[in-house]
Description:
The structure holds three protein chains of three kinds. Chain A contains eleven helices and 13 strands. Chain A is an alpha/beta fold. In chain A, the strands form three sheets. Chain A has a six-stranded mixed beta sheet with strand order 5-6-7-3-8-9, sandwiched between helices. Chain A has a four-stranded antiparallel beta sheet with strand order 11-12-10-13, with helices on one face. In chain A, β8 and β9 form a beta hairpin. The longest helix of chain A has 18 residues. Chain A is globular, with a radius of gyration of 24 Å. Chain A starts with a strand and ends in a 12-residue tail after the last helix. Chain B is an all-alpha fold. The two termini of chain B are 42 Å apart. The interface between A and B is large, with 47 and 38 residues.
Amino acid sequence: MPQILVESLVKTFHLAERVPGTWGALAGLARRRHRTVTALNGISFTLREGELLGYIGPNGAGKSTTVKILSGILVPDSGRVEVLGKVPWTHRIETVAQIGVVFGQRTQLWWDLPVIESFDLLADIYRVPAALYRRNRDELVGLLDLAPLLDTPVRQLSLGQRMRCDLAATLLHSPKILYLDEPTIGLDAVGKLAVRDFIRRLNRERGVTVILTTHDMDDIEVLCERVIVIHEGGLFLDGTLKQLRGRVSSERRLIVDLARENGPINDPDAELVSRQGRRATLRFDPARVSPAGLIARIVANHEVADLFVENPPIEEIVARIYGSACAPLSRSARQ
Amino acid sequence: MCALTRGAVLRARKKLSMCAHPMSSIRHGSACAPLLYFRYIGISIRSQMQYRASFLMMSLGMFLITATEILSIWALFSRFGSLRGWRLEEVALFYGIVSTAFAIAESVSRGFDLFDRMIRTGGFDRLLLRPRSTAFQVAAGDWQLMRVGRLAVGLIALTWAGLKLDVRWFPGGLALAALAILCAACLFYGLFVLQATLTFWTVEGIEIANCVTYGGNETGQYPLSIYRPWFRKFFVFVVPLACVTYFPVLAILGREDAALGTPRWFHAAAPLIGIAFLLVSLRVWQFGVRHYRSTGS
Amino acid sequence: MRPYLAVLSARFRMLLQYRAAALAGCATQLFWGLIRVMIFEGFYLSSAAPQPMSFPQVVTYIWLGQGMLLLTMFGPDAEVRAMIQAGTIAYELVRPVRLYWLWYCRAIAARFAPLLLRAVPILIVAGVFFGMRAPASRGCAALWILSTAAAVLLTSSVATLMTISLFWTISGEGMNRIAPAIIWTFSGLLIPLPLLPNWVQPAIRVLPFRGMGDTPFRVYMGHIPPEQALLAVAHQLAWTAALVLLGQWILNRGLRRLVVQGG
């Protein structure tokens, strides 16, 4: 029994158009033009309890629209959605009481209030029993190291501190499902590690289902086994990271550190991607070219200090998807 | 990494045990709607009181502006003597009821008054993500204290009219005046709700609602009978301002309705229409929320 | 000159964008004017005693007041207030133009732009449907335009003073809260000034505020006869000059204070 069920979800928006310039503004007094944008064009997927899903796609692909529909804020044009057995937009209050949503750029805390007062207020809004609230609060304060921040008004917190407080706030009512929209945006390295670690523990130890929307591919690589790629309102891929890589390309990278600064490097079977001082990055297809053979040839023909093989960064994979002209493959992409 | 977290947990536990947060344990258990509402209000009032000098000045400014309003009425009466058969004391009664009610509505419905700002910044989505009614959250979101300036002038006018007029105040007159103020406040509240509901369709041009909110306040300061017939009909049937001010005052003064010919029993019962108006506008709000959720922001 | 013209045209385009707002604003003001007219109609019907102004004159006065309302708004510049609150006022202070004149021109632009969008439609509708009369004579009309221009200059100088006062948080806020009551009363926007009690008239004559509304309105109607109109305009301009000088002096003191405190 899937916890989240999405079937053939369709959503279009109608936007009014503004013509620039003074003449356009005067014309706008008389008549307004409208433009139709299809945000979602029939996507379908299901999520079981305890899954950690990476939900990626270029800006405007339909990610936040999906999250809004799943949380009951938005009503779709057509399609079927069930979250915890209920339709989210007809049972908004019941659905919302069991999920948590974090938007990376907007806080849900009260700007002028100390953090602890925001927590208390949220506990009352969500009708959290006192004992459960105290337990959750203390645990979250400990896990996210919030004790020194509790008395500070939210407007005085740094971005990283605010994000940690937001994460805690969203979990005070023990939600079963968590939607995280860009949780690591603007955070420094330590902050990102802390947030990722926290999310992983939440998912592994508490079984909280997480849908993570992010542009930071390190987040995806570290946290998600399953990935859905949305492109122009359609499902491009629903599978594992490995399948994602395989779908776009089967290439591998060979990073070579040469002995000398400007030593030449070339090979008939490999393509030079970039060159920085001693380090050269080569691209090759392991299906056509044996990695061992290629390495042997490179070492034989050049003065090599060090080398290693790796997969292309997810960023590049995804960028290629975003820029690709291929039509979204809904059913055949799912393995 | 594990060592770091373990250390953090130990430190946090120590801190928490040292200062068990008093606020957190006391202020708890107010999950039911009325208590939660007052919890919100307390927060709003406290944050306004933080800027005490500013609050005092705003209240004083509001008081002066409203005072000049009523002083101008007095000036006109001293020049013209009467207004279509109405005396200054009677007009002061109208003024007092409308101003008091409007001041109450202004301060209590501030959340709806500022709602267009919330829609523009996308803050409404956050309200939809909480397991409470949206109207409740908007209503509880803000209370503005400075309207006490207008409230003071309204009460002064009421008191003066009460002393000067030869009316039997106990108990019927006072009860009727209180009912009129309450119901007129409900009417104005409903108008602010409707104004906020407009923002679901457009954020521009909602100031047209000022015609009936601030315009209604200005209109209600004088007896309805002095206005042109079509204007009177508007404020009886479209925006039932007359039902919450004109008719109850007629009942208090024991006057006949020469202008519209309504029966006496209606005069005392009419204010309840104000409450009905508020309930209807809350339904319209729900309709607006539904529209917002279908079309996105 | 160029930067000031740019400010004006930008403001104009911005106002055009909000067509619904413009329409709503006009409708609201027409409504407001109607309420006032009906109230005064009631008063005039209740007394046969001669009054300093006739009812038709009061009607014209009210509609001119509604039409010119945005011209006579004297609140501080909202952008500057936002900048002070956000702390970005420093950007304003390093501009290569004299600050007082920048603010003054912005104030004039803010009052000039709504003229076409609000005043013209309101006055036309009021003239056709609601009893506003034409100027008493061609001479009155010309003097009215002159007086209105002077009123814009005067109101802008008051508004700039309000903007400058924002530098002093507490007293500035105080002045911005308390001034409206006084200015509205003494400029004729509340009741036509001739209808105020006789004992207040001397104060009205001296203060600058009548130049913000009352003077151009009564010049239009010929209530201030053309012979005295030029004197009235001189009163407006004299006060304008005084307030401009005052504003510059206060601004310089305020800027020096800022520099000393380190911004």
